[in-house]
Design brief:
The structure is a single chain. This protein has 6 helices and 7 strands, in the order E-E-H-H-H-H-H-E-E-E-H-E-E. The strands form 3 sheets. A 3-stranded antiparallel beta sheet has the order 4-3-6, with no helix packed on it. Strands 1-2 form a two-stranded antiparallel ribbon. Strand 1 and strand 2 form a beta hairpin. The radius of gyration is 19 Å and the shape is elongated.
Length: 193
């Protein structure tokens, strides 16, 4: 069940069946997540998705819109996504019983033609500054256990690396050029102990 700002709920009683021939877990998760977001406000999300991810969303939109009449449409959308990504990069998105990395899927479909944010690192001890890295996707890899809320996640992308010169922790600064509509946080760095 997905709760919306207006305190309405949208029941998502069905998902997608796992494809054991072409392991589909990461594709299932991607399609169901996007559908869950879209279903909270179809008209607003359709407009935003078409504006930002037009080529991708034009292909999955009919399946989202017809979900109430044909729940198997999400599986069809998942299969289309898997085929499209396999054509794009067979190494990152293999067929058969080798799963794809869900982060690779998100990075590929959410990539934009513009720089969304940059990361600059500097050392306060030796005044060394490291080259800014720029990113054109809205995947933010974070160790969520270090950060108390989303506001901190937006400003702190990762654990600081040590300085190459003095080995002290670097100060890392994330600068958003534009906050994307949809941000995916990769929390795989969370300790499992």
């Amino acid at each position: 069940v997905v709760a919306t700002k207006k305190r309405q709920t949208v029941s998502l009683t069905q998902g997608v069946r796992w494809n054991s021939m072409n392991w589909s877990c990461s594709y299932d998760a991607t399609i169901v997540t996007l559908f869950s977001v879209w279903k909270t406000n179809p008209s607003s999300w359709t407009e935003l998705f078409l504006m930002l991810y037009r080529n991708f969303f034009l292909n999955v939109r009919p399946f989202f819109e017809n979900f109430d009449r044909d729940a198997s449409g999400l599986e069809t959308a998942r299969n289309w996504l898997q085929r499209m990504l396999q054509l794009y990069d067979r190494t990152a998105f293999p067929t058969g019983q080798t799963g794809a990395d869900v982060n690779e899927i998100w990075e590929t479909i959410l990539r934009e033609d513009k720089t969304l944010y940059s990361i600059t690192s500097s050392c306060l001890s030796c005044n060394l500054s490291y080259q800014t890295q720029t990113y054109s996707h809205s995947i933010n890899r974070v160790d969520a256990s270090l950060l108390p809320d989303t506001k901190h996640w937006l400003n702190f992308p990762q654990k600081p690396d040590p300085c190459h010169q003095c080995n002290r922790p670097l100060i890392t600064r994330l600068s958003w050029m534009e906050i994307p509509i949809l941000i995916i946080f990769d929390t795989t760095a969370i300790p499992t102990d």
